[in-house]
Design brief:
Elements: H1 2-25, H2 32-44, H3 49-57, H4 70-85, H5 92-104, H6 110-127
Helix pairs in contact: 1-2, 1-3, 1-4, 2-4, 4-5, 4-6
């Protein structure tokens, strides 16, 4: 039973990486900053370099399994929003993908708008000189 759970979790992590790779490529190019986010997520999720390369080279071999617990859902959605924003541009196709993913997770698409606003507010606060 535990082995099946580990396989399911592994499949979920690889599926999330596949989602991120597809999002990064949605605008026709994967920037260095997007690649850095992909590598950071892979490292955090204990995805080996071989598994990472397999997702990049054979994305159709990976099925997507949506997480069930709220913390993981939100973490995966935050990863997608961060990846979408890392190049400093809000591509409409990437935004649409993020909103569809949010809805697949059981949220309203507007949650993505809220996450974007939160990131922008945080960046603005960091740019303000200290009093």
């Amino acid at each position: 039973m535990e082995e099946n759970m580990n396989k399911a979790q592994e499949q979920q992590r690889l599926g999330q990486l596949k989602n991120l790779v597809m999002l990064a490529a949605a605008d026709g190019q994967v920037t260095d900053s997007e690649l850095a986010v992909l590598l950071a997520v892979a490292s955090r999720e204990n995805i080996s370099p071989e598994e990472f390369n397999n997702v990049i080279e054979n994305p159709d071999s990976i099925s997507i399994t949506l997480p069930e617990d709220e913390d993981t859902k939100l973490a995966y959605l935050r990863d997608m929003v961060a990846l979408m924003m890392v190049d400093g541009e809000l591509d409409e196709q990437e935004l649409a993908i993020c909103k569809l993913y949010a809805m697949a997770l059981g949220y309203r698409g507007s949650i993505v708008d809220g996450m974007i606003a939160g990131v922008i507010d945080q960046l603005d606060a960091e740019d303000q000189p200290e009093a």
